[in-house]
Design a protein that fits this description.
- The protein is mainly α and 154 residues long.
- The protein is built from 3 helices and no strands.
- The chain has a domain of 95 residues.
- It starts with a helix and ends with a helix.
Length: 154
């Protein structure tokens, strides 16, 4: 039986691994993990900053859209009010006419005045619309320029 016990120990020694120090591998793995974590944090911070900027841009654009929409609406209401008042004034003049010739004169003057008023109102609406477009595009333009400059730097 002594011989059988000896055979087992010889077999066990054949399959034994030589002693290996795992510390260098652990240090390399730890360094790799720390670098990965640092890069992930950096990427997250960049993404968060970009998303915050985008949110601010959207908020500013919505606020500007409301302001400019109000300006456009008020301009349109002002034009309608002026047209309505001019029409009522014209009707009052027509009620007091004494001849057909006088009615034609009043009507011709009214059409001429309304044509001039329409041109002025169109110019004013164009001006307000242009201002609204520029105000709405300013935050988006600034955000785009900032993004492009950060891309050029990277």
């Amino acid at each position: 039986m002594a011989k059988a016990a000896t055979d087992k120990t010889e077999t066990a020694d054949v399959f034994a691994f030589p002693a290996m120090d795992a510390a260098p591998f652990a240090d390399q793995f730890r360094n790799f993990a720390e670098q990965g974590l640092a890069k992930s944090k950096e990427a997250y911070d960049t993404m968060k900053s970009t998303m915050d900027d985008a949110q601010k841009t959207v908020e500013k654009t919505v606020e500007t859209a409301q302001e400019q929409g109000s300006k456009l609406s008020l301009t349109a209401i002002g034009a309608m009010r002026a047209n309505t008042e001019a029409s009522f004034a014209h009707l009052e003049k027509l009620v007091g006419v004494k001849s057909l010739g006088e009615a034609f004169e009043i009507q011709t003057a009214f059409f001429r005045k309304q044509a001039e008023l329409a041109v002025d109102q169109a110019k004013e609406m164009q001006s307000v619309s242009k201002e609204a477009f520029e105000a709405l595009s300013a935050p988006v333009k600034a955000a785009t320029e900032k993004a492009m400059s950060s891309v050029k730097v990277a």
